[in-house]
Every structure is written in structure tokens, then in C-alpha cells.
Specification:
elongated, about 0% strand, mainly alpha
Length: about 230
């Protein structure tokens, strides 16, 4: 059993460099854009071609994992739709703003999930806080029995919901206000700031959930240890 848990826990990191997605989604598009611009390629064409790299990565990820992630497909759809629209309208700013539509929609969906008492960030948070069999069992019991635990899940989900909506508004503002050549790199600062802020702000609820999981896990261990004694008696 321990060996199985070990394989499951380490499957993600073992697949490759954790910085590779950042390089492919940000570094390669930026470098290819400025390279094409240096050689006289038009703004719309340069943005369209550089945006294909993240799109290809999304397609490859879906094929490799054999599962359709809703957000990933949303990003791909926005890319596919916005490129021909940008060519027709001649608007490179539309291509730069397209990603914000996805994060804005995600923020709205997170709010709806909280209102439905099914916070959508639960699985993502669980991946970090419930890495072992014992902590996973504690998570399951708390998510059913503890109102305080569920409130923490809702609070963290709302933090990310607000963050994504702020990112959407800020990104569109950057695209509208700044020249395209500046906005190309400036738009990547916005999500970095938002993500860092969300991680910091959610800390109080993450700490609370970590403590609750630890306490519940210890209680589960005591109950398990007491079973043989009752049977023997």
C-alpha cells in the first residue's frame, strides 16, 4: 500500500521540469514574437504564430492525459476563435486580451460553485493538503462532518475567484492602455502578481485546514489503534 501511495504522490513531478510549462506558455511566445517582429513580421501575424505554442501544448496535454480539462479546452477555443477574428479586424490587441476572457469566466464559475456549496478549488487544494492515505481519509471525513472545514474551502475558492476576475480586468486594461509591443510582456506581469497575492491571502484558511486535517488524522489513528483492544476484550 505504501508503495502505491508513493507512486501516486510523485507521478506529477516525475513527468518533467516543473518550470517547463512556464517556459512554453510565456518564454517561447515572447521570444518568438519579438524575433518575428525584428524580421518585419506584422503584429497580428506575430501574435497569432506565437500564440500557437501554448495552444499546441494544450492539445498535446489533452491527447497525452486522454482527458478533457475544461479550462484547457476553453483556452484552446479562445485561441482558435480569436486568431481569425484578429486577422479579419486587424486587431493585435484582441489576441492579447483573449486569455483574460478565460480567467474572467473561471472566476465567475468559482463564485457559482461556492453558491452551490461545491467549491471548485477543493480538488486543487486537496492535492497539496491530502497527500497521504491518512490525510486523504481525514479530508473525506472533514468535508462531510465539519462546517468550519467547508467554510475554509469556500473562502479559499472565493479568494481565487476574485483574483481571476481582477486579473481579467487588469489584463484588459493593460492591453487597452499600453502599446502592443509593451503590452506583450506587461500582460504576463498581471497573472504573476495575482497568483502570488492569492497564495498569500488564502494562507490563513490553508493553515486552518492543515491543522484540522492533522487533528482528524490523529483521531482516526487513535480509533484504528483501539479496534484490536475492543475485539480482544
Amino acid at each position: 500500500m505504501a508503495g502505491g501511495n508513493h507512486r501516486s504522490t510523485n507521478r506529477g513531478p516525475a513527468t518533467g521540469n516543473p518550470f517547463l510549462p512556464l517556459l512554453l506558455d510565456v518564454g517561447v511566445p515572447l521570444a518568438s514574437y519579438y524575433l518575428m517582429r525584428h524580421f518585419g513580421v506584422g503584429m497580428v501575424m506575430a501574435l497569432a504564430v506565437s500564440g500557437l505554442v501554448p495552444a499546441v501544448r494544450v492539445v498535446w496535454s489533452v491527447i497525452r492525459e486522454r482527458s478533457a480539462d475544461g479550462l484547457a479546452l476553453g483556452v484552446l477555443t479562445l485561441t482558435v476563435v480569436s486568431i481569425p477574428v484578429a486577422f479579419l479586424t486587424g486587431s493585435p490587441k484582441l489576441l492579447l486580451a483573449k486569455d483574460s476572457l478565460g480567467t474572467g469566466a473561471l472566476g465567475v464559475w468559482l463564485i457559482i460553485s461556492v453558491l452551490l456549496a461545491k467549491p471548485a478549488m477543493a480538488n486543487g487544494i486537496r492535492a497539496f493538503l491530502a497527500r497521504t492515505e491518512g490525510s486523504a481519509a481525514a479530508w473525506e471525513r472533514l468535508s462531510v462532518d465539519s462546517t468550519a472545514f467547508r467554510r475554509c474551502l469556500s473562502a479559499t475558492t472565493l479568494v481565487w475567484a476574485v483574483g481571476f476576475i481582477v486579473e481579467c480586468v487588469a489584463r484588459i486594461t493593460v492591453v487597452v492602455v499600453l502599446p502592443v509591443d509593451t503590452a506583450v510582456w506587461a500582460v504576463n506581469i498581471v497573472p504573476a502578481v495575482v497568483i502570488t497575492s492569492c497564495i498569500v491571502i488564502q494562507g490563513r484558511w490553508i493553515v486552518a485546514m492543515t491543522r484540522m486535517i492533522g487533528s482528524r488524522q490523529a483521531e482516526n489513528d487513535r480509533e484504528t489503534a483501539a479496534v484490536p483492544l475492543r475485539v480482544a476484550a
